[in-house]
Amino acid sequence: MEHEFPSELMYLQTHEWVRIQDNIATIGITDFAQHQLGDIVYVELPEIGSTFNKGSNVVEIESVKAVGELVMPLSGKILEVNTDLADNPESVNSSPYGTGWMIKIELSNKSQINELLSVEAYKEIVEAEKK
């Protein structure tokens, strides 16, 4: 199965994607991650205004097969959460890079962006995991 990897995004080894605009990052899980989890039935989002450090588990994702986590790719403060996921958690499956986004944060340390993976580096990780 071919997975989608938008080239304008940055990625994490733990299968999160990041879209950065100025000092704001929109974050979700990748197409590969949602395929691994299966049908997503519930997404528990953090409180707006709360702050998290890079590497923290920030969103709990429940699927019919497993419980997964969205790991904070960058340190920052939660500015917005995708409230539509309460009623439509399956958006994460159908549109992981679109309507299935999870959180928007205000970056507290922009230098961490340099630690994110390019699409090429992330594709290599996925290929290795598929074997």
Brief account:
The protein contains three helices and nine strands.
Q: What report would you give on this structure?
A:
The protein has 131 residues and is of the alpha+beta class. The chain has one domain (16-125): RNA polymerase II/Efflux pump adaptor protein, barrel-sandwich hybrid domain (OB fold (Dihydrolipoamide Acetyltransferase, E2P), Beta Barrel). 18% of the residues lie in helices and 34% in strands. The protein has helices spanning 31-37, 91-94, 119-130; strands spanning 10-11, 16-21, 24-29, 40-44, 51-52, 57-63, 67-71, 76-81, 103-107. The longest helix has 12 residues, at 119-130. The radius of gyration is 14 Å and the shape is globular. The model has no long low-confidence stretch (mean pLDDT 96).
Mean pLDDT, all residues? 96
CATH fold field value: OB fold (Dihydrolipoamide Acetyltransferase, E2P)
Structural class, from secondary structure content?
A: alpha+beta
Distance between the termini: 13 Å
**CATH class categorisation:** Mainly Beta
Q: What is the N-to-C order of secondary-structure elements (H for helix, E for strand)?
A: EEEHEEEEEHEH
Question: Sheet bearing the most strands, described?
Answer: 6 strands, antiparallel
